[in-house]
């Protein structure tokens, strides 16, 4: 956050209040999700203020969004979600059995769980990429604003290029200081799968 002159102090204060102890998983999940909601609201309040007037919006909407910035975010998250879903399935994990996101029909909860750490990649990309856009980059469908078809293709190709080439700090199997984002996305489900299999083996040993 500090890289883009965003103030993380309130988020850091709230994070110190996390208590992972409880008698029921549902209780702990509700506490974490409540804190996540507060942190998300504070983050996007500051994040949205970084954009020009034609993109400005006050609230983060996951569905039914009308403004172009929320739709840009959803497009970026969807590019990442596809990558994460493939990685989860490749690790032989059930994408529909999650931890924080609730398990329900047609909702790949584990994919959304494992997507969370990578959302910042889309948010940072959009913060840099928006300078290539103008009001003419968008088209109206009813009351909703979306990138035009050719602009969507440019956006997705540019974001895919970042995922495939940018290196980030990441400890991969104890022998890497940095790795490409695409590799890290693949590695996280593998780590979870190894952890689960190791512990399940201990239970039934």
Mean pLDDT across all amino acids: 85
Largest sheet: 2 strands, antiparallel
Shape: globular
CATH architecture of the largest domain: Up-down Bundle
| Number of separate helices | 7
Number of domains: 2
Q: CATH topology of the largest domain, anyone?
A: Four Helix Bundle (Hemerythrin (Met), subunit A)
The spatial strand order of the largest sheet comes to: 1-2
Tell me the radius of gyration.
19 Å
Distance between the termini: 45 Å
- The level of helicity is 40-55%
- Note the run of SSEs as H and E: HHHHHEEHEEH
Fold and architecture overview:
- By secondary structure, the protein is mainly α.
- The protein folds into two domains: 1-50; 58-203, Up-down Bundle (Four Helix Bundle (Hemerythrin (Met), subunit A)), CATH 1.20.120.
- The chain contains seven helices and four strands; from the N terminus they run αααααββαββα.
- It has helices spanning 9-15, 25-48, 68-90, 109-115, 119-129, 149-165, 181-203; strands spanning 138-141, 144-147, 167-169, 178-180.
- The strands form two sheets. It has a two-stranded antiparallel sheet with strand order 1-2.
- A hairpin with an 8-residue loop joins β3 and β4.
- The chain is globular, with a radius of gyration of 19 Å.
- It starts with 8 loop residues before the first helix and ends with a helix.
